[in-house]
Amino acid sequence: METLNPVVTPTVRVSRLFDGLEHEIYAKLDLLQLTGSTKERTANGLIDELFATGQLREGGTIIESTSGNLGIALARQSVVRSVTFIAVVDENANQLALDIMKAYGASVDKVQTPADGNNLAARRTRVRELLAEHPGSVTTNQYGSPANPRAHFQSTMPEIIAGTGGNLDYLFVATSTTGTLVGCQQYVRQHGLATKIVAVDSAGSVLFGGQAGVRRLPGLGAGVLPELAAGAEPDLVVQVEEIDMVRGCRLLVRREGILAGASTGAIVAAMGQVLPSAPAGSRVAFVVHDTGVPYLKTVYNDKWVRSTFHAEPEESTQGSETPPGGSCE
Fold this sequence. Notes:
Blueprint: E1 11-14, E2 24-29, H1 39-52, E3 61-65, H2 69-81, E4 84-89, H3 95-103, E5 107-110, H4 119-133, H5 147-164, E6 170-174, H6 179-190, E7 196-202, E8 236-240, H7 242-256, H8 262-274, E9 283-288, H9 302-309
Parallel strand pairs: 2-9, 3-4, 4-5, 6-7, 6-9, 7-8
Antiparallel strand pairs: 1-2
């Protein structure tokens, strides 16, 4: 059975997300990928590149740093390509995501949070150590491989254009390796589109000149600049606090019935900041990067949110028409 390639996911219009905003808003539902995230596209492209260049063959071993979603996608891709996968994760990784990787047969190597709090740097150091310990193993290098943005240039952005009819004014993309952002940006520029790319980042991320800080939710932002970030030139950058990511997730599921992960919640919060001042009738698309299932015990758990952020999970949305992270006035 041929199960390698990512599926074409729907791009649907959402109309209940924000009150009082006269925009056309479309959601790219990549949570419907087989492994539940847009990282299925990334993993497929990265492994294709390794096989095409002869760096990887059946029976080989892949070692990669992951905060969760890429690890799940690489674990599945490794099964159908007959290779072994070792996922290097940190203490912020969702336990459910780790369980899913293991169900696919992956080995999970967890690093402890270092004194400086830079989990990404610790994971990447551990990858190098494991590569030395396993002769002939390779890393997909999601942080620097051009195959990462290429996957989104070739599939994600064309599908968004097809699903929306084109002529988008804004595209909101969450950022970590910046692979999705760079791929979509390259497509927009190569095709002469007027779409403004909005990069959604986490507070505490060093991307786009940000200051390093504590980040508890995986999958958004970076503690070390990835190599791909050198080519990332968004039209607008919005940094989002983690409590607003939580509130964005909850608004999306309560208004639109889309159970998404923290990075998509950040996008909802960012749209709440940007769209009130956008021209009426703007055509907007955003990527639903992953499913919210691995976040049920964190983002969607009231007790965890209150104990972690010392704030109410839906304080800014309950009984109010104000979207998270901004005002409609």
